[in-house]
Amino acid sequence: MRAIWKGAIAFGLVNVPVKVYAATEDHDVSLHQVHEKDGGRIRYQRRCEICGEVVEYKDIAKAYDDGEQTVVLTDEDLASLPVEKSREIDVVEFVPSEQVDPILFDRTYYLEPDSSSTKSYVLLRRTLEDTERTAIVQFSLRQKSRLGALRVRDDVLTLQTLLWEDEVREASFPSLDEKVRISAKELEMSSALVESFSSDFNPAEFTDDYQEQLKTLIEAKLEKGEALDTEETFGTETEEEGGKVLDLMEALRRSVEKNRDKKSGGSKSSGSGTRSSPRTKSGEDDSGEKKPAARKTAAKTRKGA
């Protein structure tokens, strides 16, 4: 990994020099635009609307337009801002970790000690762990003032940029003002369904179905070209219950039974990545009731399926 920024965490008179690294990366298959007729690559040009010239990226500046005047801001102008010159990650306060709403989380960065002595780094890490608190920090990165959360992950300090309060939209839905009666039986059955799905979260067990299927499609098109038959490549999907609408209690009951059967079977199917349900002959369950066919989905799948 390559450090994208260097600075220091500052809380009180304690200074912790650090290097900042991007903690995440995109795994999506890279696609570009082409002319469908001949496969020619589509290119975009940055053209000035006044002189008509194609402008090199190095000659492009930012500007603010108030409708009457345009103020051009060069990279040198922006770099002169005092906050941009700062190399401090300034700790503002330490808060209980549960008070930081996950909706505020933006990007995550790893922090590596940037000093011959790691004592101050380890001290801060241990303090956050022992107090079960998160450090709220402010800093400047890539021409923006940032709010962040400093926390610990696998013995490494992580810095998560936070959205500003006014960047989170208010959830206002009139439909939720309607009074809805939930019976005790429905709540009990819903809780049973949650319990039947209960597990310990392990992100390594899940795969990105879309990207996996996209890779399969690309490989198949490379091999067969326009003669590709997508149904042959991916199979066909079957609709469950013939579009029959179940009432809420019946849907909950069947869901609990179906998931309970999956867990008792303990096996995982290949292809869809979901656990397969144990079946008796003719697709009937122990009670002799006809079970609905399993729907193939592109939902989260478990690796190794």
In short:
This protein is α+β, with helices and mostly antiparallel strands and 305 residues long.
Question: Mind explaining what this structure looks like?
Answer:
The relative contact order is 0.10. This protein has helices at residues 75-79, 82-85, 119-131, 184-196, 209-224, 230-234, 248-265, and strands at 5-11, 14-22, 62-65, 70-73, 88-96, 105-113, 133-140, 145-153, 156-162, 206-207, 301-302. The protein has 7 helices and 11 strands. The protein is extended. It is α+β, with helices and mostly antiparallel strands and 305 residues long. 24% of the residues lie in helices and 23% in strands.
| SSE series | EEEEHHEEHEEEHEHHHE
Which residues form runs of ≥5 with pLDDT under 50? Answer: 267-305
Tell me the strand order in the biggest sheet.
1-2-6-9-8-7-5
Major β-sheet profile: 7 strands, mixed, barrel
Structural class: alpha+beta
Strand content: 15-25%
Radius of gyration: 28 Å
Q: Helical residue percent?
A: 10-25%
Please state the overall shape, judged from the principal axes of the Cα atoms. Answer: extended
